[in-house]
Amino acid sequence: MFREAGLRSLGEDHVGSRWTIGNRKLDAKSVSNANGVKAAHGFGLRTAPPVPSAAAREGNYNNGGSSSDMDITSDSDEDTYGKHHSPQPSPQDYRTHVRFPHVSAQNGGHGRNGAKAFGFGGDELSDSATSNQVSYEAEACGVRSNISSHNECETRRNGEAGTTGRNQNGTITSTSSLLPRFPTFHASEQGPWSAMIAYEACMRLCLHSLSVDRVNEASYFLNNECKTMRNAFSLEKFFLQSEEELLGKGSCELVTEASATKTKKTIGKIRVQVRKIKLGVDSPPGCNIASLTLPKEKLVVVRRNIAELNLTLYSGWKAAKKVHVTPHVPLNGSLSRQSLAYMQAAARYLKQVSKAVKSEMIASRTGPQTYETVQETYSCSLRLKSSAEEDQIKTQPGSGETFIFLPDSLGDDLITEVRDSKGQLLGRAVAQLAAIVDDPNEKVRWWPIYHEPEHEYIGKIQLDLSYSSSLDEKTKCGLVAETSAYDIILEVAMKAERFQRRNLVFKGPWHWMITRFASYYGISDAYTRLRYLSYVMDVASPTKDCLDLIYDFLFPIIMKSNHKAVLSHQENRLLGEIDEQIQQILASAFENYKSLDELSFSGMKDVFESATGTPAPAIESSVKLYALLNDVLTPEAQLKLCRYFQAASKKRSRRHLLETNDLLNNRSEGAASVDPMALTASYQKMKSLIVSFKNEISTDIAIHNCNVLPSFIDLPNLSASIYSVDLCNRLREFLLVWPPPGPSPPVVDLVITTADFQRDISSWNINPIKGGVNAKELFYSYITSWIEEKRRVLYELCKLETVKACGEIAGLTSPFVDEMYHRLNGTLDEYEIIIRRWPEYAISLEKVVADAEKAIVEAMEKQFAEIISPLKESKIFGLKIVKKLTKGAPNPYAVPKELGVLLNSMKRVLDILRPSIENRFKSWNSYIPDGENRILGERLSEVTVLLRAKFRSYMQALVEKLAENTRIQSHMRLKSIIHDLRETTAEPDVRNRMMALKDVLDKTIDHLHGVFLPDVFVSVCRGIWDRLGQDVLRLLEDRKDNVTWHRGPRIAVSVLDEIFATQMQSLLGNALKPEHLEPPSSMKELRSMLCKDSTDYREGGYNY
Questions:
Q1: Are strands 403-405 and 268-279 parallel, antiparallel or unpaired?
Q2: Which of 40-54, 218-232, 255-269, 672-686 is predicted with the least confidence, judged by mean pLDDT?
Q3: Is the separation of the CB atoms in 544 and 621 below 8 Å?
Q4: CB 43 within 8 A of CB 37
Q5: What distance in Å separates the CA atoms of residue 116 and residue 137, rounded to the nearest whole number?
Q6: For 764-864, where are the alpha helices, taking DSSP H only?
Q7: Could you give the angle at the alpha carbon of 743 between the alpha carbons of 739 and 744, nearest 5°?
Q8: Are 628 and 582 in contact (CB under 8 A)?
Q9: Threshold 0.70, pTM exceeds
Q10: What are phi and psi of 18, to 5 degrees?
Q11: Three-class SS of residue 76?
């Protein structure tokens, strides 16, 4: 069919890549997962070894019927499982491997888990038993291939790169989870003779069963002249066909067959790899430069060296010509003295010339080099002499590519053409097949390269050649062991039943066939189970149905006492291979226990998503199978299983952390401030990370509570220790790069979410985790710095207020006070959630608030210093006497508007602004755990006492000042008015005497109403009222024996009460409360004295 059979990889398994098989191109889109052949880096090719001798077959045949002549010692250095488990690997392990980098790194690129690409037969007879393999697999994938059943290169596919090859995330690597996955059929490589023997054995079995039991399954295979079996074994082309069958074929098929190229006969295979190319010849002894035949690049180097030497010599000669030395010859000296002078001059000349030449040569050597050695690159074209020139294959020396050629006779040659980088033909090397066959041990050798047509020797090429004849690859006619026939029938049944990872169970006639065949021909139960499992492991996935099937088939074998001694050598080897593959499947299942999906072809979810609290059905099956293969009572097996789940947690942790990597990569520690929107987004992303980790742990708790895992697996503690440590490390890194500027809502959300994570870990009875999340420790330095920063900001605001003029305030109260207390309340609001979690921070916060309130009062006193100075002077009694003596009668005191602002603000602080802050700190006491000292609010109580004392002091001083206004004129003094009254004095006379005092009080009260707020206004008025009552009370106490005064003072007191009550009522109206109209304590005591009431009303004076 082909004039040559060469195979070359044009790339990895990408869409649109193509394979060259001889002179035919096979599209990678047509055959799923077809991969190239590259020795040592991607392509390993094996063929079935020769059939053993008759003595060897007899020795194997007599081994209880369980062993097979297929147990042949292999010389292949790629048989991993055979070397690991048995010195006699089965030829079923001979298959073609394609090594993917990500698979070979895990599995070594060999063994049953390697990726399968292509298998090759020697001629048209070598693949008769598997001629329908390509069409079967392509059809199962929805793709059809037009590869002939007589092709020299039989395509083998495996849907994925290996059952248990795992990538970095631990998931099973696959080309596509949507494609079905098929096993590798290697028993069929035994050739048509073994297939014919197996076919004959099946036919005898059916005839025997039909004659004994008349079973329907036997009739199924015998109907229509055994057409079902003939098609299944692909033996139709080897049997004679009736004329009716030949004439029944369509004309189109006949035309196609008539026009088809005749199949090429081959005698073996040549494996070729180009190593090195050396152009040029070795110099014979005594040759000169002109006689040498040098390559271009070497000639360039020689010419460059000669040019440099000439340039150096010329530079030295020019330097020597510039040297001049004059001898100092005495005029009248003797001849000897003149000769001595010339000799000294010559010596100086030689020294200077030597020095100049040396300097010039050093300078020329150290100068810039303008020449470069250009290394020539070569390419090669390989083809057989018997093939057409257009079928040649191109390669590069040292690329590691391996090619397979199929010569048609021993007279065939391998022609290698060598070209330069520009594509010009330099020469060719001819490797005779006869020379290769004569010395098969020397695989790597040098072959001469000649330039034609002169046949001039120009160099040599190193080729790695190995030859195997078709007689070695064909299966000779001989004895076929029962196990070998059983393997062929098993593969035929798998092809017929479309055996793949979602169709692992045989049903119907084929199930009857393989079962009765094993029973009829004495195949051991262990062998049938193990051989079947070897195919299952090719397509196994971590799903419940697959794992349960493996367990069911393996359980009877493992549970036998001393089962390794009972099993044959071949069965022990199979068991070792299967055990290793199962361990890898179980590792994938346990390390991805949250990503298992029964509906996926690969058994894994295609996307990463949050897990549910329901364990995957495959988990229980995996645990059961693990317990079957491992002694779970030993610490080693327990530790191994624990590490699987730890690896799973680490993988999921890395996947979660991946979502926040950009937050660390895009910023560095100590970077400038960022946009608030970016800060909010970053903190929300970290909050989501914490929630994800918490969900992972809660999911593990739910899975653990389902009791599907062994008792020694404490899944919540295993995973929580990993998640907590990883989260803590990520939070530390994040806070260094994105330091929290303050207790803003996104920052507080992250703090509380972190604290909730720590609290939940504790509430779930997770053991203490070293290096785990400790929210208080993570944020302690930041919270304390926020509080200190708030103290500094408040203090700076108070300092700024002191420089402002108090006269600029427009309202009755200072806006500074309202602003500062608004800030204090905002601060408490920001820390409310943090204080609920950690009430110990409330102590530091209370100190900040208390210091801020003191700073507010101090700032206002400094701002209103000139206004309150007269009030402070009124407290000093001696100072008042001195001023009266020096200045005479003082001017009446008028209350300034600024004083009203000060007292109004202080009253507002005491009655309105501070109570809310005090109540909040008192409520925070409830957050302190029982048994600890609840001292919140003590510092604020001290500030309250201070503020009330200052306010009372200023009020008393103001009342004293206003009372002094009524004593400036003698006729207005209440003491003088009462002193001049007589018992016979009528009420109108008393009112007339008090008219001046009434006018002064009315004006004062009216002015106070415009300066003070109602509460302060009432307090000041009642203070003046009480102070005047104290003056009258003091006068009556001095002269209480003179009872004739009693009627006049009673009238005066009632007039005084009327003045204050009437004036306040008229100004405040309904806003005045009834208790405000009640006489102060001094007036009540005065009435008691005048009415001879024994009740003592003195209770310490009026309270402001």
A1: antiparallel
A2: 40-54
A3: yes
A4: yes
A5: 13
A6: 775-802, 815-837, 841-863
A7: 95
A8: no
A9: no
A10: -130, 155
A11: coil
